[in-house]
Design brief:
Elements lengths: L34 H17 L9 H17 L19 H22 L7 H32 L2 E7 L1 H13 L5 E8 L13 E2 L2 H11 L3 E5 L4 H9 L3 E5 L11 E2 L2 E6 L8 H18 L1 H15 L4 E7 L5 E7 L7 H6 L11 H9 L6 H7 L3 E3 L6 H10 L12 E3 L1 H4 L8 H13 L3 H14 L7
Parallel strand pairs: 1-2, 1-4, 2-3, 4-5, 10-11
Antiparallel strand pairs: 5-7, 6-7, 8-9
Length: 469
């Protein structure tokens, strides 16, 4: 364990006007325009404008609503409504023209076919359909050109704070390039050096090393983006994402990206969140279904365990303890009591020992068979936990481990679990925290509902030959 650092807060942004440091664009409190809402409104308006070309009897309200909904869905699926961010505003509306034209053609043809099927007398002819399509496309392109121009101007006037992550020399070059080109709307405020052996004497920006310095920099400078030079670092990506930063891979490692998505010639690709963030609903459905069925089926066993604890160890059957859940939120974890700690401080700060001499025979049996964990099914049903996920820990140890292990805090970007990938690999009880952290983050980065089912089946199989925790 390490003690908490008492070093004074580091100001990550260098003072403006300091010699031999890149001049950073000023941050004026100019609010960014509602970019996404404006794009959606543009598509809706384009449908109404183009409909003026059609005959009055062909402008049914239902048809226009269906056309607008279809077009919005197609554009959203293609990512044409993504909010403006690093390298996301095209150099020209021509870069978006193929995607816009193709989806508009599909939407208008589908609407015309639907209208003809409903009422052949109101069918739109090829000439009228082509004219409406051309007006729609011209209106959308003109409006998007204006919106992109305004977005670039807003980004230049109100740049987003960013950290540059990678080997110090490459990170410094990228930061200097961004300082020379404020049109990208990115304001580097610090460098996270992934090669700590590199010399920092000539660094033009503060160089951050530990998780604590990174966390402080993100808070002090309202950092919203992290630019990774070279290969991305999974643990740092997870840590910065936990702090609310969007990750971007810059350079050759970004791979095949659209020509318009670049930072002064450097390819730029967004590092999307892990699949687990997009699968919360099916995961929650699985949790509620399985936990509810298990509580109903195991209720006689729960009563038997409670009675054994009451007869063996006296009052106080259920043990309640504060744990850290998803996004650092605290909740009360439930377990069957297997021993009685000396006081609250011991319960909060003492590491569990597998063969504590104070445990009775009943407590030892419950701990060895993991039956003491069954009340956590109620935590799962309440939404405090999930069936599968990183195991929750006490706040004291979360604080300690987060300072020692860079990726530990990133475990909390997903609901904590009753069991997990680390546990089915034998990492339970007094085992390596670094190994657990690695397994937990690997699980989050490669989550799938089927993997949750597999982990649950492997956990059930392991209970046949229990090893305890």
């Amino acid at each position: 364990m390490t003690t908490e650092s008492t070093s004074p807060a580091t100001t990550v942004v260098p003072p403006r006007g300091t010699a031999d440091r890149p001049a950073l664009p000023p941050r004026r409190p100019v609010p960014a325009p509602p970019f996404v809402a404006s794009l959606v409104a543009t598509d809706c308006a384009a449908v109404l404008v183009a409909a003026l070309v059609l005959a009055p009897e062909q402008r049914g309200a239902a048809l226009l609503m269906q056309l607008t909904a279809c077009l919005a869905a197609l554009n959203a699926y293609a990512g044409l409504y993504r909010p403006a961010a690093v390298a996301s505003v095209p150099d020209s509306v021509l870069d978006e023209l193929p995607a816009l034209a193709g989806r508009a053609a599909v939407a208008w043809c589908a609407a015309a076919a639907l209208l003809a099927a409903q009422d052949p007398d109101r069918a739109v002819g090829p000439a009228a359909l082509s004219a409406a399509y051309a007006v729609h496309l011209a209106f959308v392109c003109a409006c998007r050109a204006v919106l992109h121009h305004r977005s670039r101007a807003a980004a230049r006037a109100h740049p987003r704070s960013a950290l540059v992550v990678g080997p110090a020399p490459a990170a410094q070059r990228l930061a200097a390039m961004l300082a020379r080109h404020p049109e990208y709307g990115v304001r580097p405020v610090g460098i996270v050096d992934t090669h700590r052996a590199a010399a920092h004497a000539e660094s033009s920006l503060p160089v951050l090393s530990g998780p604590e310095e990174i966390h402080r920099a993100v808070i002090q400078n309202s950092v919203r983006d992290a630019l990774f030079t070279g290969a991305d670092q999974p643990e740092l990506v997870a840590l910065l994402r936990h702090h609310g930063c969007v990750g971007w891979l810059v350079g050759d490692a970004a791979g095949d990206t659209p020509m318009s998505r670049h930072l002064w010639g450097h390819a730029c690709r967004r590092l999307d969140p892990p699949p687990g963030h997009r699968g919360r609903l099916p995961k929650r459905v699985l949790d509620v279904t399985v936990a509810g069925l298990m509580l109903a089926a195991l209720s006689p066993l729960l009563l038997l365990c409670a009675a054994a604890i009451r007869l063996s160890d006296g009052p106080g059957v259920v043990f309640r303890q504060e744990r850290v859940g998803q996004d650092g939120k605290l909740f009360t974890l439930l377990k069957f009591r297997t021993l009685r700690p000396a006081d609250d401080e011991e319960a909060a700060t003492r590491w569990s020992v597998a063969h504590d001499e104070r445990m009775s025979g009943v407590g030892t049996f419950l701990r060895r068979t993991s039956l003491d964990e069954l009340p956590q099914l109620w935590n799962v049903l309440r939404g405090d936990m999930s069936l599968v996920g990183p195991r929750p820990e006490r706040p004291y140890f979360v604080s300690q481990f987060s300072r020692v292990h860079p990726g530990y805090a990133a475990r909390h970007r997903m609901p904590v679990g009753l069991t997990g990938l680390a546990q089915v690999h034998g990492l339970r009880g007094d085992t390596s925290i670094e190994d657990r952290c690695r397994f937990d983050n690997h699980y989050i980065d490669h989550w799938s509902l089927w993997q949750d089912v597999c982990i649950l089946l492997r956990t059930a199989a392991s209970l046949i030959r229990p090893a305890g925790s």
